[in-house]
From TrEMBL:
Pfam families: MST (PF04978)
InterPro entries recorded: DinB/YfiT-like, MST-like
Entry protein name: DUF664 domain-containing protein
Gene3D superfamilies: dinb family like domain
């Protein structure tokens, strides 16, 4: 039997500040993503265990671009040449044979740091800048809405990754 991986603790259940709670849970899930990939066999990182066909490295790339799309291109309206990342012929995030987990992890961590700076410079009740992802007036969601959306993306996909990791090598964790 494989020993379950113990995650760091969730944010305190005494938090009442929405900004701290959202930021804490986003960092908790960002860490969980990397923890679930650590030590995964190379072949399993690049293979799909599910009918949908995605691989764990593709999921890492997807969540990197979730941050780019919603916070850089979306909220900050930065000009992003390829906001959805590059897709392969099967319409999934393309991970080249030359791309390594370490490189993709570094890109993810850089992207998360940029997201933290964007969030840190704004109020939760601020609305996304016009342009970028939201090029029609009135479309712009609030930062708090965007953060909840990004949080649910992580929660949903980490559940998928739990299953894939258990199928790959029996490792289970929270």
């Amino acid at each position: 039997m494989v020993t379950p991986v113990q995650p760091p603790p969730e944010p305190s259940n005494k938090l009442t500040d929405p900004r701290e709670l959202l930021a804490g849970y986003l960092d908790f899930y960002r860490d969980a993503l990397l923890r679930k990939l650590d030590g995964m066999p190379e072949a399993a990182l690049r293979a799909s265990a599910l009918p949908s066909g995605w691989t764990p490295l593709e999921l890492l790339k997807h969540l990197t671009y979730v941050e780019v799309r919603w916070l850089r291109w979306g909220f900050a309206a930065e000009e992003i040449a390829v906001p959805y990342g590059e897709f392969g012929p099967d319409d999934r995030w393309h991970v080249g044979e030359e791309e390594t987990l370490d490189e993709l992890r570094a890109a993810f961590l850089d992207t998360c740091e940029r997201s933290r700076r964007i969030v840190g410079a704004a109020r939760l009740e601020d609305f996304a800048a016009e342009g970028g992802r939201f090029d029609e007036p009135g479309q712009e969601p609030s930062l708090i809405w965007i953060l909840f959306h990004v949080l649910q993306e992580y929660a949903r996909h980490l559940g998928h990754l739990d299953v894939v990791r258990e199928l790959a090598d029996g490792t289970i964790g929270e």
